[in-house]
Design brief:
The protein has helices at residues 11-25, 31-53. The chain is mainly α.
């Protein structure tokens, strides 16, 4: 569940977190789904670093 107060620059992170939750809740454990989950987790980490490193 995303936080009640979202800042606009954080929106892409929350969207990916929602996608991740959806994939994990699907109950499907195929290699393809596992790879998608891995990719989304990596993208979340990358986005967090990019967004928060650029805050002044």
């Amino acid at each position: 569940m995303p936080p009640v107060h979202q800042l606009s620059f954080e929106r892409p992170i929350y969207e990916l977190e929602a996608k991740l939750a959806e994939l994990e809740a699907s109950g499907t454990a195929t290699d393809e789904v596992k790879e998608q989950i891995r990719h989304v987790k990596q993208e979340i980490l990358r986005l967090r670093k990019e967004i928060y490193d650029n805050l002044d």
